[in-house]
Design brief:
single chain, about 500 residues, mainly alpha, Fumarase C, Chain B, domain 1, Fumarase C, Chain A, domain 2, three-stranded antiparallel beta sheet, two-stranded parallel sheet, 21 helices
Length: about 500
């Protein structure tokens, strides 16, 4: 897939995250070369320019001799490759590399076209640097993680090639590549920027988007299992409030339940006046979640297309301007929003599970088992869901409100965007498990209503679930059922099972 720096869509970034290989529009190389040429002219003037012929951070006042400039760029990569912890996921590292390519491809970073081509070739040949996930405070850029990427380009550190983790120099040799030799400014350009935080935040956004759509389906199925009303989804209600996400969520829930025999069975003479909030307020909650995710998506799309290293090169005037585009505050805020959205998706789902297992609320057998007492049914799966929801709440404290000074107080306010973004994958895994429990519980609840059937869409979902997970007649080892449901969600099988187009982000 060809990407044009500065105008890459969220759907294109999602394709990269899902495994598609990205290459740059060759047209960008002209501006890249102009930027590199400007660096040469700036150096020829002999004036001290940060990051080109000076030290870094607190050492910016130390000017470096011309003969040491190549060593300077290599040293910054090696010294800054000080990350720790487990390696980031390969899908996220690939996305980070593509984001760095797009940023450098804007032609404001002073790198040579051949350096950019080297990064492209690594992606094409599936050379994935081993990047420890801990060590970034989100300013001055994601220094440690991006340094590990840059070090692999120099043949230092480790690379994952065809799933095998090995010394970087060996992997490059197997791929027919020689280690890169850095030119002036290039080491700093590679390791300075927000691409690590942005990659994790985008990954969290894409996972949250998939879970959002799944939760609309599981919520509709739970509404059917409890013989809930779709009156609360009437479009007139939501038009009066006006939130776009709420309107779209209500429309999706109506479409999912359209034509249901279960719903038709209690349209009249139903003694209940209102459903619990977990059913009735789905459009309001899920609509707000959708609006929040879209806002985060807009921020991340801008960030992904921007230039976030320092200093920035302007070939038209041969200037290197030092600023603070590496400060990842927008990414931190976006990641915090995604974390809140994930919390609410899981929280509402758990409340529906709790409602279904309570006969006083659902009208179904206690804990969704035909023989309660002898069997515990869905008693403990609901406890598991509650535990995961609380874990997500504890993880959702805003990362963006934290800061700690670094680099001898030269970098005295940081974004913590990497922390804010990295937690999203763990939170997403928790929501997967909660939604998996709800899907099994809702399918079980609908089983008690047979021979009544739900809508075409929701019966397709029930069939998808029942192909792997049989109805629970008596207690059995529950864990395999939960894992099977999680697998369906991760494979997006629940969303693709329904013929209804569901709203989302990208």
């Amino acid at each position: 897939m060809m990407i044009s720096p500065g105008s890459v869509s969220l759907s294109q970034w999602r394709a990269v995250y899902d495994g598609e290989t990205a290459c740059l529009d060759p047209a960008c190389k002209t501006q890249v070369q102009a930027s590199a040429d400007a660096v040469d002219r700036i150096l020829a003037n002999g004036d001290p320019v940060y990051g080109i012929n000076t030290g870094f951070g607190k050492l910016a006042n130390v000017q470096i001799e011309h003969d040491d400039l190549a060593v300077l760029q290599k040293n910054i990569v090696l010294s800054h490759a000080a990350g720790t912890g487990e390696c980031a996921q390969v899908s996220v590292i690939r996305l980070m590399m593509a984001l760095k390519m797009a940023s450098l491809g804007r032609g404001a970073s002073g790198v040579r076209p051949e350096t950019l081509s080297f990064l492209e070739a690594m992606l094409e040949k599936d050379l994935i640097p081993v990047v420890p996930a801990q060590g970034s405070v989100g300013a001055s850029g994601d220094l440690a993680p991006l340094s590990h990427m840059a070090a692999a380009m120099l043949g230092v550190g480790e690379i994952i090639l065809k799933g095998v983790r090995q010394p970087a120099a060996d992997a490059l040799k197997k791929a027919g590549m020689s280690p890169l030799e850095l030119g002036p400014k290039e080491g700093l350009a590679l390791l300075n920027g927000t691409q690590f935080s942005t990659a994790f935040a985008l990954a969290g956004l894409f996972e949250a988007d998939r879970l959002y759509r799944t939760a609309l389906v599981s919520g509709a199925l739970s509404t059917e299992a409890a013989k809930g009303s779709d009156t609360a989804f009437d479009p007139r209600i939501h038009q009066l409030r006006g939130h776009a996400g709420q309107i779209e969520a209500a429309e999706a829930l109506r479409a999912l339940m359209d034509g249901s025999d279960i719903r038709a069975s209690h349209l009249e003479n139903d003694a209940r006046v209102q459903d619990p909030y977990c059913l009735r307020c789905q459009p309001q909650v899920m609509g707000a979640v959708l609006d929040l995710l879209r806002q985060a998506g807009r921020t991340l799309e801008i960030e992904a297309n921007g230039v976030s290293d320092n200093p920035l090169i302007f070939p038209e005037t041969d200037e290197a301007l030092s600023g603070g585009n590496f400060h990842a505050e927008p990414v931190a805020f976006a990641a915090d929003m995604i974390a809140m959205a994930l919390c609410e998706i899981g929280s509402l789902s758990e409340r529906r599970i709790a409602m279904l297992v309570d006969p006083a609320l659902s009208g179904l057998p206690a804990f969704l088992t035909p023989r309660p007492g002898l069997n515990s049914g869905f008693m403990i799966p609901q406890v598991t869901a509650a535990a995961l929801v609380s874990e997500n709440k504890q993880s959702a404290f805003p990362g963006s409100v934290d800061s700690i000074p670094t680099s001898a107080n030269q970098e005295d306010h940081v974004s913590m965007a990497a922390h804010a973004a990295r937690r999203l994958m763990r939170m997403s895994d928790n929501v997967v498990a909660v939604l998996g429990i709800e899907l099994i519980a809702a399918a079980q609840g609908c089983d008690f209503l047979l021979p009544l059937r739900s809508s075409v869409s929701l019966e397709a979902v029930r069939r998808t679930v029942r192909e792997l997970i049989p109805t629970l007649e008596d207690d059995r080892y529950f864990h395999p059922d939960l894992e099977a449901a999680n697998g369906l969600i991760r494979q997006n099988a629940i969303v693709t099972a329904v013929p209804v187009e569901l709203p989302g982000v990208a």
